[in-house]
Each structure stands twice: as C-alpha cells, then as structure tokens.
Amino acid sequence: MDTPLAVVTGASRGLGRALAGALNERGWRLVVDGRDGDRLAATVAALPQPALVTAVRGDVADPAHRAALAAAAGGRLDLLVNNASELGPSPLPPLVALHCDDLERILAVNVVAPLALTAALLPALVSARGRIVNVSSDAAVEAYEGWGGYGASKAALDQLTAVLGVEHPELRCYAVDPGDMATDMHQAAFPGEDISDRPAPETVVPGLLALIDGDLPSGRYRILASVQGPTASVRVVGGGEVLSVIVAGAAR
Could you tell me the maximum CA-CA distance found in the chain, to the nearest angstrom? Predict the structure, then answer.
C-alpha cells in the first residue's frame, strides 16, 4: 500500500500546523507551505518524522508557488487541505471602509488560490480518489460586524466547494468550519483581547481526521470542539445532523 500524501497550505502555524503534525505522526508524506520561511522550517523540524515532509516557502496567491506545490506533490495525491487564509486589516474595518486592495487580497488568497491549486492538483487527486478540505468559517454564513470581506470570501469558498463536489463525485469535497480557535489569526481579529478561552487548534484535528478517514458525502461541515479538563469532545456536524462523535486528548 502506498504511503498517503497530503498537501497542506498555511502549515507553519495554527490549524495547518496542528493537522500536519497529526498526519505526520501517522506516517503520511506531506507537502507543506507558508510565507515565513524560518517559521516553516522550524515547524517541519519539530514534526515527529520531518524526513517525510517537503516544505515549499511561498504565497498561495502566487501562481509560480502553486506550480511548485503541484510539482512537489507529483502524480497521486490523497488529500489537499486549503488552509492558508487572509483575514484582512487588523482591527477589522466596517465593510464600506474596507479598501478595494485589501478585499482583492482577501479574495486572492481565500477564493482564487484554493480553486487554482485544486485545478493544478486535480489529476493527482482523481488518481487517488482523494479528498479536498477547504477551511471555512462561521463568518461565511453569519453576519458579523467587521467580518464582511473575510466572510464573503469564505462564503464564496463554500459555494466553490459545493460545486466541485457535484462536478467530481469521485472525490470528497469538504468545506469545514472549525469554529473559533486560539490562533494568531483570531488574535489579529481581536487585537488586545484575551482569546485564551478559545479551543486550541489541536482540539479540532480529530474532527478533521474523521472526515479524512471516513466516507462522508461532500458538503459543508462544522467541527464543534468543547474542552473539558484533559479531554476534548469533538462533533462533526453537517446538514443539521451530528455525523460523528469523538473523544480525544485535548493536547493531541
């Protein structure tokens, strides 16, 4: 049996780093990226099996970088995780105060880049009958003050994911809302505030693994992580129905 391969964007921090660590611990081969080369190198060095990892520094909005990721993946790919995201200015401005240049950047990273990378990797994904995980947000479906640009981009990503699932039934295409997490991006959305009460990204990983391991239909899913002492209760929810319940170590 071939060793499974995943491409994970935005893997130098937050949820991308946590998922890359869990997959690497399982023995997956990884192609990972990040804009900060030093941070990316440190992340890879800290993984359980760094020899299984190819790190490609760059920006997913750059076509040359996406081509480099596709070249590193080769002809067969089991999993693509479009995790790299752009929040926009911090503090988050009202929608009418969001500069067009900032909105274009948000859309380039959160919408155009995931679709373009998916297109570049599609033959490899089809060869493996793989999975696509596009990291979304509750801001895609709820109206939050200041979150208009980011939320609109994630709503577009949700729709792209849904259409990909219809057009490619041989794949599993998931838009995943991981919920609030204690990440650098979430801190940037709430500058100066204490966000330590949010779940760590590691508590969300079991829900992602449930999607990756299972055969749930393509669609939009929420991961609800509730940390209670040393354990995290994780639910994967789609279409209003709880599809999976997992109990995992909170610091996995």
Answer: 53
* Both structure tokens of 43: 């992340």
State how far the Cα of 163 lies from the Cα of 178, in Å rounded to an integer: 21
Residue 216 lies in a domain: yes
Residue 32 near residue 53, CB atoms below 8 Å: yes
The CATH number linked to 130 is 3.40.50.720
Residue 176, in any domain of the structure? yes
Q: What is the dihedral of CA 17, 189, 164, 114, to 10 degrees?
A: -60
Residues 185-198 have a mean pLDDT of 81
Write the pLDDT tens digit of every residue in 211-233. 899 888 899 988 876 554 434 44
In a domain, 181, yes or no: yes
The answer to the question of residue 240 being in a domain is no
Q: Which residues are catalytic?
A: 150
Question: What residues contact 177, with CB distance under 8 A and at least 6 apart?
Answer: 136, 137, 138, 140, 141, 220, 221, 222, 223
- Cα four-point dihedral sign 121, 66, 204, 49: positive
